[in-house]
Design a protein that fits this description.
401 residues; nine-stranded mixed β-sheet; Rossmann fold; binds nicotinamide-adenine-dinucleotide; 2 domains; oxidoreductase; NAD(P)-bd_dom_sf; alpha/beta; Dihydrodipicolinate Reductase, domain 2; six-stranded parallel β-sheet; single chain
């Protein structure tokens, strides 16, 4: 199994590099990459005052990459996921599933996907007969995730599913059971858990740089337009801003601390005179209490100008990300007392395509037979907290988890 061995080396190398980035002054990756026997090393020609250039890779050759079928060709697939394959090391697109064959044929031609590997929703199960497809990536409206994960699992292919996992914890439980029964992996696409700045902040926390965590404040909001879109229809979305963008704040409060909340207090706002918010909330604010005494205070809205930030407060330092959940350009800084002076540090962290990192993690899990860092259970936990948030908003009471 040379493939797995070499891929494992590269992956472990990436993990080691990520650790190094987060620890030793956030050094450039190229300085720390060990020599790989199949990696071409080029000499540095610039002076020591210049940033060192890195040679990307080694990437897996086409025939050894994990083939993905992309299900749903909307904005996320076209604008982020398909282009991200260009930066991936272990993944490649090999099939498309769409209700619009002409659109799918155009996209297949753009990405070098065989025209015979285009499927409709009705014949989706025929993916089972395509040996090139090892993973199915569900990028459909939230209310369709359960059906397509369950049907997909029956094809025997591993499943990567967009967030939010479903529209309820009951659906999420069903999806986990179906994948277990079919003996296929299930990963939820929490891209921010694979994004280098978020990972660097997690590393600061695990190294104790912030001291004991006390507070987390975060917002993820945007202004929605078209009132006819599926995001504003409860059966397809499962809710308004909370499961769509507020979920980032909730997941970050849990992921970055490594703790699980024990109590929730929340309120929602649904204006009566706005066509966009007939079925779902426009805004939601919630606070989470964790057993250690750490608390998270979050707001999310579909009715404010785009705003994405988080701030973590610990007994010996604070850290801030703004933006925190963007596709590109996330920024991290943190501050602590150094001698007699407050030292604010904005580490240089190499930006990487987080969708490529996320898909490559899943590819790695398939190649190596390991479990994803964000399995179905991770999505289920968030659904249980979101249900508690809605219950608290409805009853006006604190809800225990
Ligand atoms: P979109 O509306 O742009 O695309 C949805 C696709 O599903 C379209 O191709 C549409 O034709 C198809 N579809 C099939 N049946 C449909 C139906 N009954 N109603 C509506 N569309 C139908 O949505 P999107 O922004 O690509 O979101 C898709 C999924 O990705 C959602 O689960 C969303 O939460 C998630 N998402 C994640 C991120 C992220 O950063 N990870 C960002 C955006 C969206």
């Amino acid at each position: 199994m040379t493939l797995v061995a070499s891929s494992r080396r590269s992956f472990l190398r990436s993990a080691a590099v990520a650790g190094a980035v987060a620890t030793a002054g956030f050094a450039q990756q190229s300085e720390r990459r060990p020599n790989e026997e199949n990696e071409v090393q080029l000499s540095q020609i610039h002076g020591p005052s210049e940033q060192k250039e890195s040679t990307p890779g080694p990437f897996l050759p086409e025939d050894r990459r994990v083939g993905f079928a992309i299900v749903g060709l909307g904005r996320l697939s076209l604008n982020q996921i398909l282009p991200a394959f260009g930066s991936s090391e272990y993944s490649k697109p090999v099939a498309l599933v769409s209700g619009d064959r002409a659109k799918a044929a155009k996209i297949a031609a753009q990405y070098g996907i065989n025209g015979s590997a285009i499927y409709g929703y009705a014949n989706y199960e025929e993916l089972a007969k395509n040996p090139e497809v090892k993973a199915i990536y569900i990028v459909l409206p939230n209310g369709m995730h359960e059906e397509y994960v369950v049907r997909g699992a029956k094809t025997g292919k591993h499943i990567l599913c967009e967030k939010p996992m479903a529209t309820s914890s009951k659906e999420a439980e069903h999806m986990i059971t179906a994948c277990k029964q079919a003996k296929v992996k299930l990963m939820i696409a929490y891209r921010q858990q694979y994004e280098p700045h978020n990972r660097a902040l997690r590393q600061l926390v695990t190294e104790g740089k912030l001291g004991e965590l006390r507070g987390f404040v975060s917002s993820n909001s945007q202004q929605e337009g078209d009132p006819a879109q599926w995001r504003l229809k409860r059966s397809l979305s499962g809710g308004g801003c909370l499961p769509d963008v507020g979920l980032y704040c909730l997941n970050a409060a849990r992921f970055l601390s490594g703790e699980e909340p024990s109590e929730v207090m929340a309120q929602t706002w649904q204006p009566k005179d706005d066509l966009r918010f007939v079925e779902v909330e426009a805004s939601c604010s919630f606070s989470l209490r964790f057993p250690s005494g750490y608390t998270a205070t979050c707001t999310t809205s579909y009715d404010v100008h785009k705003s994405q930030f988080l701030r973590m407060e610990g007994t010996s330092a604070w850290a801030e990300m703004s933006p925190a959940f963007a596709y590109h350009g996330n920024k991290l800084k943190w501050s602590h007392l150094d001698g007699e002076h407050e030292n604010e540090i904005a580490p240089q962290i190499e930006e990487k395509d987080q969708f490529a990192l996320e898909m490559d993690h899943f590819a790695e899990c398939i190649l190596e037979g390991i479990e994803p860092k964000t399995p179905g259970e991770e999505g289920l936990r968030d659904h249980r907290v979101m249900e508690a948030i809605y219950e608290s908003a409805r009853t006006g009471k604190r809800v225990k988890l």
